[in-house]
Amino acid sequence: MNKKTAALAVLLLAALFTAGRLYWSSQAKKNIIAKILVVVSNVSEIPGRGVETGLWASELLEPLRMYRHAGLGFEIASPTGGSFTCDQKSYDTSFVSEVTSHYLTPVIEKYRKSMEVSLPLSSLNPDDYDALYIAGGCGSLWDLANDKTLPGIISDFHGKGKPVAAISQAAVCLCNVLDAKGLLLFRGYRVTGFSDREASLIDMADFPLSVEKKLKSCGFSYQAASPWDPNVVSDRKLITGQNPASVTQLMRILIQELIPPDENGVLYDDCLPDF
What is the pLDDT of residue 100? Predict the structure, then answer.
């Protein structure tokens, strides 16, 4: 990916965040159905290697697009707040989604904002939100996987019956969540996450952990599909996706938890509206 495309990608994320906050603010006195907390990694470089990393673009862009289409509010948060970075590989034409490709340039041209847009996790009140979504990407293995604040936020959401969703590498964050007795909160739950077979197909030799092995060691019932195939597992309002290809299906399930069926009993479904 060239520098121009990378810069456009950064601005797109800022635009979506700004649009979401403006939408929420302008609709605050109206009947907004729900507001979603989106958590992302701040890590932009693999420690000790000097290799760029970050969150996976479609695991943020596609959910934000779907939230706006569904009329939901959202805010983005990260361990330290401020800037966050998308892994440049997530814009490679071998991986990029049709949504990212179609909407990248026009949205960037409309909104030119800085990337200093995420809120620090420590500043949040979980009661301000109706659902939690944790975006993946390799960066999450260094900060989200070890963050001290995130487990309490996850526990708060789950304890109040609010849906919690995580995708790809971010599923490992669930391993640190404890109940009131200090036991693993989600032990025995069915989940998925980035598989060892998928990790073997990309350069993850120096990564700090295996998502699949970590989830299994924490007592989860781990379920994987073939590499890069969509796979979403939902168990007691804990919704997990295996890889970037799973994000649209995961978001449909999450949004259907928040939006009741219409008068004909039809559940929310997605289309591709303009921003």
Answer: 55
* Cα torsion angle, 65, 68, 70, 75, sign: positive
CA angle 213, 215, 216 (to 5 degrees): 65
126 by DSSP, 3-state: which?
helix
Please, are residues 168 and 59 in contact by the beta-carbon 8 Å criterion? yes
3-class secondary-structure state, position 29: coil
pLDDT in tens, 55-84: 888 898 888 888 888 889 999 999 999 988
Residue 9: strand pairing partners: none
- pLDDT range class, residue 120, cuts 50, 70, 90: very high
Strands (E) in the chain, as ranges, are 35-39, 45-46, 51-52, 73-78, 119-120, 131-134, 164-167, 190-191, 221-222, 232-235, 238-241
Q: For residues 227-254, give the mean pLDDT.
A: 96
Element at 17 (helix H, strand E): helix 3-27
- Which residue has tokens 């121009």? 4
Spatial separation of the C-alpha atoms in residues 225 and 203, rounded to whole Å = 20
- Strands 35-39, 73-78: pairing is parallel
Averaged pLDDT, 221-229: 96
Quote the tokens at residue 99. Answer: 């949504």
Q: Are 145 and 208 in contact (CB under 8 A)?
A: yes
Answer whether residue 137 shows pLDDT above 70.
Answer: yes
- pTM for the full predicted model: 0.84
